[in-house]
Specification:
about 650 residues; alpha/beta; Rossmann fold; Dihydrodipicolinate Reductase, domain 2; 4 domains; 8-stranded mixed sheet; 7-stranded mixed sheet; 18 helices; globular; disordered N terminus; disordered C terminus; Thiazolinyl_imide_reductase; Thiazolinyl imide reductase; methyltransferase activity; nucleotide binding; Methyltransf_25
Length: about 650
């Protein structure tokens, strides 16, 4: 019999193994970012991908459970469970037998779950199942709003939809939104008539069920289809939930947002029983907006790349945090799992009524953009009455084409739009700045100045300087418009004006001091070709004080792609609204041309437009680390998930520094 490991000492991270490297990659990122966990190794079949990933992370790749050392505290099992035809449940139970706390990925048959919970109780360990999606930030926002809504008014109806392979998480979301699942009742799927089947060619990808959950009438729409080898890429939609009350409808439009509130349309009637159409006494509700975004109305929807690099690891981190709290408290796993047992009990009943999913193998889908549906940007004025181009379009047509290669000049792409830069970058640098400040911890300000290369308008420069009051900085920015804002920003603070020197040099033109305490290059290295990058990085590495960091931020593009026009930001100042648009096309084997446009609207009409472009070399952080000869680290927790394309480079032998 295996002797269970002794519990970890207070404050020590839980040494954790992750089983599985498909979805398990998100768990690996989250474990690395969470201060309560330490990645001890990977448990996999030993394929080339798993071994390469373990090598990159500097941890062992075990292929047999018997090979695990005896000091493992916790495990994440991110392989299919028995109900999905895998050995995840068996693996989880073997880990529990060894005295390891287990967090297992959904779904589980309720009998599997109950058996694992009983074993966890017998071994004095925690067992949790993670349905993942309730922890995604947009779903968390929806659940907070649903709780507040239920406290004010009873639920009149629920309309929900999901593809079959993530149906268990939908049940979990509904249970949390409604304050429970019991009692539930389900009808069989509504039949499709012969006439409708003939009209659609028997193509019915979505099945409709009616039921009741926690006393609320529920309509469920399920895409009961599966591609056996590629489930996610062939889901027609993701989680969608609408909760209706007397006062309006709260909607989770998609797993990844937005969350919308539609107030109830209600117009009073006058003495003649006619509807009142003008707001006034007794008709104040007519001033309500027809719809509002719950949360940050100005927030930019996530890109799919953001979901994979930030949102999902963050959601896994939420599950890990709850798991760690249960371990620390010594919860009774059976007593704390009542909600999970109900979730998988209802899921089992749903799956039984739906029947086996239809197996499909369609070709790869072709995603569309909003520009495919409506070529006019949001807020753009209507076309001219004669159907001709608007004045702004006519002016753009008369504009001469940009000179070839102009995007390669130092500062190109930034001088024209400099007046708008803070409107677009402020939200991003509110995450980047704290991450850079944290990554600089331990620098020795007496070993030399800190270089901020490509300082822009100083949004991050100011945060660094204020966090390290003993440090002298050199802020280099070649774009005159950006540099004007930078100098004005620093001049407002006498202390910063004393300690920060502004230079007009591009990265490859900057005269480097003999010794520096750190260097920061955010959004810079993609402007420089490979030979120039390598020369700059090696020169900086040679000048770094022992243990000092070189902090770099890239864009997340690792290969040239066609990027349709995409609105990145929208902001308002007074009566004017500003929109930042970007598009891109490959312009070489490792290079893209990125076109930026700022449009200014006043009272709904476009009054100004500024266009520019630059070239960007599509390299990732790993490539940058190889070119520098330094070792790549992630930013310290909890910043790694918020800034996935920020890397910290240090010498291979990191030596502590004193302050």
């Amino acid at each position: 019999m295996t002797v269970p490991p002794s519990p970890p000492s207070p404050g020590r991270p839980l040494r954790t193994v992750v089983a599985g490297t498909n979805f398990g990659r998100f768990y690996i990122d989250a474990v690395n970012a969470h201060p309560g966990f330490e990645l001890a190794g990977i448990l996999a079949r030993g394929g080339a991908h798993s071994r390469a990933l373990a090598g990159k992370l500097g941890v062992p790749c075990w292929t047999r459970l018997a090979d695990l050392p005896g000091d493992i505290d916790a495990a994440v099992v991110a392989v299919p469970s028995a109900v999905m035809g895998g050995n995840g449940t068996e693996l989880g139970r073997e880990l529990l037998e060894r005295g390891v706390h287990v967090l297992q990925e959904h779904p589980l048959h309720p009998d599997e779950l109950a058996g694992s919970l009983r074993l966890a109780r017998a071994r004095g360990r925690q067992f949790r199942v993670n349905t993942h999606y309730p922890h995604v930030r947009s779903v968390r926002r929806f659940l907070r709003a649903a709780t507040a809504l239920r406290a004010r008014q009873p639920v009149l109806f629920v309309d929900a939809a999901a593809p079959v392979h993530v149906l268990a998480p939908l049940v979990d979301i509904l249970g949390r939104a409604l304050g429970g699942l019991r009692p539930w009742r389900l009808d069989d799927p509504a039949p499709v008539s012969r006439e409708v089947g003939a009209a659609t060619g028997d193509r019915t990808p979505v099945q409709l069920l009616h039921g009741a959950i926690a006393g609320a009438p529920v309509t469920l729409r399920v895409q009961n289809q599966l591609h056996p080898g590629d489930r996610d890429n062939h889901a027609l939609f993701w989680h969608r939930v609408a909760i209706g009350t007397e006062g309006g409808v709260l909607t989770l439009a998609d797993t990844h947002g937005p969350v919308l509130w539609h107030p109830r349309l209600h117009s009073p009637r006058d003495d003649g029983h006619r509807l009142v159409f003008e707001a006034g006494p007794g008709a104040e509700d007519l001033l309500l907006p027809a719809a509002e975004v719950v949360g940050d109305p100005a927030g930019t929807p996530p890109r799919f790349a953001d979901i994979f690099s930030s949102w999902w690891p963050e959601a896994v981190g939420e599950a890990l945090g709850s798991f760690a709290e249960g371990i620390a408290r010594g919860d009774d796993p059976l007593r704390s799992a009542g909600h999970d047992l109900a979730v998988f009990g209802l899921w089992r009943d749903l799956m039984a009524r739906l029947g086996p999913p239809e197996l499909i193998r369609p070709p790869a889908p072709r995603p569309l953009t909003v520009r495919d549906l409506d070529p006019e940007p949001a807020g753009a004025p209507d076309p001219a009455p004669d159907g001709g181009p608007r004045p702004a379009e006519a002016a753009a047509a008369r504009r001469p084409p940009a000179a070839a290669g102009a995007g390669d000049e130092p500062g190109a792409g930034y001088t024209g739009p400099a007046e708008f830069f803070d409107l677009g970058a402020g939200e991003h640098t509110s995450r980047t700045g704290p991450a850079v400040v944290a990554a600089l911890a331990g620098i020795d300000p007496h070993s030399g100045p800190l270089l901020d290369i490509g300082a822009g308008t100083g949004l991050v420069t100011r945060q660094i300087a204020r966090a390290y009051p003993d440090c002298h900085l050199v802020a280099a920015e070649p774009a005159a418009g950006m540099r004007a804002v930078l100098t004005a920003r620093l001049a407002e603070d006498p202390d910063l004006a004393r300690r920060v020197t502004v230079r007009p040099d591009a990265a490859h033109e900057l005269a480097l001091p003999d010794r520096i305490c750190a260097a920061v290059l955010c959004g810079v290295l993609g402007h420089i070709d490979a030979p120039g990058r390598r020369e700059l990085l090696r020169a900086l590495a040679e000048r770094l004080a022992p243990g000092a960091p070189l902090i770099v931020e890239m864009m997340g593009l690792t290969a040239p792609v066609s990027m349709p026009p995409t609105r990145l930001r929208r902001a308002a100042l007074g009566r004017r609204t500003y929109e930042w648009w970007m598009s891109g096309e490959p312009s070489g084997e490792e290079r893209m041309r990125l076109d930026t446009t700022w449009r200014v609207f006043e009272d709904g009409k476009q009054v100004h437009e500024v266009r520019d472009h630059y070239h960007w070399y599509t390299v990732g952080l790993e490539r940058i680390a190889r070119e520098s000869g330094l070792v790549l680290e992630r930013p310290p927790a909890p910043h790694a998930a918020a800034v996935p394309h920020l890397g910290v480079l240090r010498g291979a032998e990191r030596r502590p520094v004193t302050r």
